[in-house]
Design goal:
mainly alpha; 0% strand
Length: 77
Amino acid sequence: MEWTRAALEARVAKLADEHEGEELVAAVAAFAEQLGEDERELLGRVLLEQAPRRRGVTADYPKWAVILPRGRRRRRT
């Protein structure tokens, strides 16, 4: 199954309704493990776009970096 932006947004909303804080991060991380690289990147964008709209612990949670795809960095030589 290929995940669309709308489907990812709906899944994130469902997870956010069911979990908070560390539990939410763990649930999203578990979900992200099932996705391909491109879908994880899209999930990361969805999370970043939605984060400012949330309030409380989830909005400012520093552990989003655990589940967001890491940017490709060029090595300095």
